[in-house]
Amino acid sequence: MSHGAKFQGWKKFAGKTITASATLTLADCGLIIAATDAITLTLPPVAESAGAHYIVKVTASHSSGVAVDGYGSELIDGTATMTSPAQYSVIEIVCDGSVWHAINQGDNTDGIWTKS
User: What domains, with CATH codes, occur in the chain?
Assistant: First the structure.
């Protein structure tokens, strides 16, 4: 007896370590390890990114934070930039082809990424 779609397994994410500010590409979709503090990760344009999915994990010692920025004047949940609250913080960002959405965020102290 069928009850809808069958589970097809978890999506496998390749991990990419970034140690300097960078503009992400669609090839970078998946797990991004931010291994340096005080860097900015700029998302690609929403018009080219429908279905794009990034999980950013901050492993660097934290003082200034890691920023995730929309492309040009594009926003993430209505704000230009999301900044990590602490070392080991995580944010998950997806694009629906019109806007970027922060759908999951937290860290080892349940801190929320700040909007600016």
Answer: 31-115 (2.60.120)
